[in-house]
Design goal:
Layout lengths: L3 E8 L3 E8 L4 E8 L8 H13 L7 E5 L13 E2 L12 E3 L4 E3 L3 E4 L5 E4 L2 H11 L7 E6 L4 E7 L2 E8 L1 H11 L15 H13 L11 H7 L5 H24 L7 E6 L1 H13 L3 E6 H24 L2
Parallel strand pairs: 1-4, 4-7, 5-8, 10-13, 13-14
Antiparallel strand pairs: 1-2, 2-3, 6-7, 8-9, 10-11, 11-12
Length: about 325
């Protein structure tokens, strides 16, 4: 096994994901812990405890952390890097902790296409990793989609993050599914296959593209009342409506000047599969990169740049 060189960490709201990496960024081992929302201010204690099994075998492992650990609910609030910016600039804006043995990656900010402030934390590191995984993304203009609780649509121009747009698609789905009458009680029937209902939601939205999403949502309940949907399939139908609306709006705002026929998806396979189906229904091809691979790849890039900077500082 290759020698461990550093620890990469994606510390989100709900989960801490740690990766023991060699000097090339190859993931040797993985570990998990509580997210920033559950840390209760005990970030140093949680990290020390999580790293203890590795620390007994590998001394003096530096750590590079991204995500909500650098937010207002995190360990320290790292400033945002303003777009347009290159992912390679992240290293210069990192915030050091514990004498520099821990580095917190900054988020990114922009004024989006709707003239509103927009922010990301964690996704910028996945984008850096995607560029490392697929160097062709550094040439030309590309539209990226990072599905999640807060889906990010990102314009990439010759390797530079030009601007982005956030849609709380996943959060809205969870709220409407769990805290409204649109879906209702799901119970044991949750195991019912909902893929057909999801595809029907996509088709129904695309069949009336000028209709507002607000005028479609009640269908999740009305189709249950008519017997066309059950509670589980209503959730699938709701997901189809929301994702189709998200895609339609983002393409309308951001696809100009890019290779609009292809969208690069970065995220968990389950979510990118849904967005790939939604984009296909709107005549867009997709390529996909697993976010679990992109995040450590991006953190490895930041670690290499920080190491090079320390070497240069030591020689001057």
């Amino acid at each position: 096994m290759a020698a461990a060189s550093f620890v990469a960490g994606d510390w989100g709201t709900s989960h801490l994901r740690l990766f023991l990496c060699d000097e090339d960024g190859l993931v040797l081992e993985r570990s998990e812990g509580p997210g920033a929302a559950d840390a209760g201010g005990r970030f140093a204690e949680i990290l020390e405890s999580s790293l203890a099994p590795w620390g007994r075998r590998h001394s003096e492992l530096p750590a590079v952390l991204c995500g909500m650990v650098g937010s207002s609910i995190g360990w320290i609030q790292a400033p945002y890097l303003r777009c347009p910016a290159r992912p390679e600039q992240l290293a210069d804006a990192c915030v050091p902790l514990c004498g520099g043995s821990i580095q917190i990656v900054p988020g990114m900010s922009c004024r989006n296409r709707l003239n509103a402030p927009d922010f990301m934390r964690g996704e910028e590191t996945q984008i850096a990793g995607a560029l490392a995984c697929d160097p062709q993304l550094r040439v030309g203009q590309h539209l990226l989609c990072l599905p999640g609780t807060h889906t990010k649509w990102v314009l990439l121009k010759n390797g530079m993050i030009s601007e982005f747009l956030t849609a709380p698609t996943g959060e809205l789905f969870a709220l409407l599914r769990d805290h409204s009458v649109l879906v209702g009680e799901r119970g044991p029937a949750e195991t019912v296959d909902v893929s057909t209902a999801f595809e029907e939601g996509l088709a129904q939205f695309n069949g009336f593209p000028r209709a507002q999403l607000l005028h479609r949502l009640f269908e999740c309940r009305s189709r249950r009342l008519s017997g066309e949907l059950t509670a589980p399939t209503a959730a699938g139908y709701l997901s189809g409506l929301l994702i189709a609306s998200d895609i339609s709006g983002a393409l309308g705002l951001l696809s100009g000047g890019t290779d609009a026929g292809t969208v690069q998806l970065i995220g968990s396979p389950d979510l990118t599969r849904l967005y790939a189906a939604g984009l296909s229904s709107q005549n867009c091809e997709t390529t996909q990169i697993d976010g679990a691979a992109a995040s450590p790849a991006g953190l490895a890039l930041v670690h290499r740049q920080l190491t090079q900077r320390r070497v240069m500082d030591a020689t001057h």
